[in-house]
């Protein structure tokens, strides 16, 4: 496993440890606090961080693009852990799509 994949796996392990059923403590952990507030709280953060990334990109500010993308990935991973989806599943899906042109994929859809 590459270093990039392992940080995602390690972060997912940490996020899972913050789930209420795993004893995550909202007083000691930002992630446990988000989980204690329920899905609306972290799903709202996903939307906010996506908007902040768009604004950074519109300004062509590479430093902010990196920071906002990290925030977006992080909050997306908070959601994935809550719903029992592992980052490896997303990486596998991207791998499955590797080499398949988006144009060809769209043209092959039954409704196209
Ligand atoms: N990668 C992150 C990470 N990225 C961002 N954040 C936090 O996400 C929060 C939201 O960012 P914002 O800039 O929107 O801050 P804000 O406006 O104060 O947020 P809100 O009060 O509106 O929610 C901030 O408190 C950031 O510190 C993170 N918090 C935690 N992690 C990872 O998650 C692990 C577990 O964290 P805890 O559960 O807090 O121990 C950590 O060890 C890290 O690896």
Termini, distance in Å?
38 Å
The name of the CATH architecture is Orthogonal Bundle
Radius of gyration: 17 Å
Helix-and-strand structural type: mainly alpha
List the ions, cofactors and other small molecules found in this model. Answer: phosphoribosyl ATP
Q: How many runs of DSSP E, i.e. beta strands? A: 0
Write a structural description:
- The chain has 112 residues and is an all-alpha fold.
- The protein has helices at residues 3-17, 30-37, 39-58, 62-82, 87-97, 102-107.
- The protein is built from six helices and no strands.
- The longest helix is centred in the middle third of the chain and has 21 residues, at 62-82.
- It is globular.
- The N and C termini lie far apart (38 Å).
- 15% of the residues are buried.
- The site of phosphoribosyl ATP has 10 residues, from helix 1, helix 2 and helix 4.
- GO terms for molecular function: phosphoribosyl-ATP diphosphatase activity.
- Its EC number is 3.6.1.31.
Q: Can you lay out the helices and strands and say which pair or pack?
A:
Layout: H1 3-17, H2 30-37, H3 39-58, H4 62-82, H5 87-97, H6 102-107
Helix pairs in contact: 1-4, 3-4
The structure holds phosphoribosyl ATP (PRT).
Phosphoribosyl ATP is lined by residues 11, 14, 18, 29-32, 45, 71, 74.
Summarize the structure.
The protein is mainly α. It has helices at residues 3-17, 30-37, 39-58, 62-82, 87-97, 102-107. Its EC number is 3.6.1.31.
Which key terms come to mind for this protein?
mainly alpha, Helix Hairpins, 6 helices, binds phosphoribosyl ATP, phosphoribosyl-ATP diphosphatase activity, nucleotide-binding
């Amino acid at each position: 496993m590459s270093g990039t994949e392992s940080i995602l796996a390690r972060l997912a392990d940490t996020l899972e440890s913050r789930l209420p059923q795993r004893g995550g403590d909202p007083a000691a952990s930002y992630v446990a606090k988000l989980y204690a507030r329920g899905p609306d709280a972290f799903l709202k953060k996903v939307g906010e961080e996506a908007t902040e990334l768009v604004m950074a990109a519109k300004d062509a500010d590479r430093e902010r693009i990196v920071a906002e993308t990290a925030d977006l990935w992080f909050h997306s991973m908070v959601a994935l852990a809550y719903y029992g989806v592992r980052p490896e599943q997303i990486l596998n899906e991207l791998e499955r799509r590797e080499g398949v042109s988006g144009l060809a994929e769209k043209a092959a859809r039954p409704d196209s």
